[in-house]
């Protein structure tokens, strides 16, 4: 199954804004970090400038947020969010427009 990145973005934004379990587990800043990184495709360097810190610290905060999602919400969701982040890190100059899902 192939999905446009904008379709995935729509789903992510809807989930980030409306999931009460997510809001119960994460702080507002962590949710904003997820939206900025995964939907807006903001680099760690840009996020670091915005928050007056280092890209490494942003990376650790992002990974800690994904670990919290993995522990409290869903391992599967955390895994898919990591895949999106990995694709963004691999090709920061050329964000992807198509995501392929292989269903078993």
Could you walk me through the main structural features you see in this protein, from its secondary elements to its overall organization?
The chain contains six helices and two strands; from the N terminus they run E-H-H-H-H-H-H-E. The protein is globular, with a radius of gyration of 13 Å. It has one domain. Helices cover 70% and strands 6% of the residues. It is mostly helical.
Concise overview:
The protein is mainly alpha-helical. The protein has helices spanning 5-18, 20-25, 28-39, 44-50, 55-72, 75-90; strands spanning 2-4, 98-100. The chain has one domain.
Descriptors:
104 residues, mainly alpha, two-stranded antiparallel ribbon, 6 helices, 2 strands, globular
Low-confidence stretches: none
- Average pLDDT for all residues: 87
Overall form: globular
- Approximately what portion of the residues adopt beta-strand conformation? 5-15%
Q: Fraction of residues in helices?
A: over 70%
Spell out the blueprint of helices and strands.
Elements: E1 2-4, H1 5-18, H2 20-25, H3 28-39, H4 44-50, H5 55-72, H6 75-90, E2 98-100
Antiparallel strand pairs: 1-2
Helix pairs in contact: 1-3, 4-5, 5-6
